[in-house]
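Researcher: Structure prediction, please.
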Amino acid sequence: MSRWPRVLIGLAFVAVVGVVAVRIVTGVMPPPTLGLTEDGELQPCPDSDNCVHSAADDERHAIEPLACDMDDLDRVVDRAVTDLDRTSVETTDDGYAHLEARSLVFGFVDDLELHATLGRIEVRSAARLGGDDGGVNRERVEELRASVGDICG
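Model: Predicted structure follows.
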């Protein structure tokens, strides 16, 4: 066998191992900023441009909550898994849901959280890595909002 096929096979192997390693690193360790605070609210966004939150008061993080009732949370979660690409449910518990959305190429994980309160569902969507998500989390929440329009008036 000549040298070039071996080099190409070696490069392909390194690329595959790299992708698998990135998927393991980005998917195994959920950030400590998930879940509800002691006050029963979603955790605030970090000081980076990779998160949106319906309770944020600054323009770069702020997004409207979903105009749903508390009883709609299960249907909203089902719709998120059905209509949002590569999204899965990690936790649902007493008005709270944590979903994971993975990017297509490298499998980077974003966390989508929903918290049902009286007359609305608060949302928080954040990338686990990086300082800027290119607006992906905002787009995800708006896509979910459009998807549940028939459920959430």
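Model: The domain at 31-147 is CATH 3.30.310 (TATA-Binding Protein).
Researcher: Thanks, that helps.
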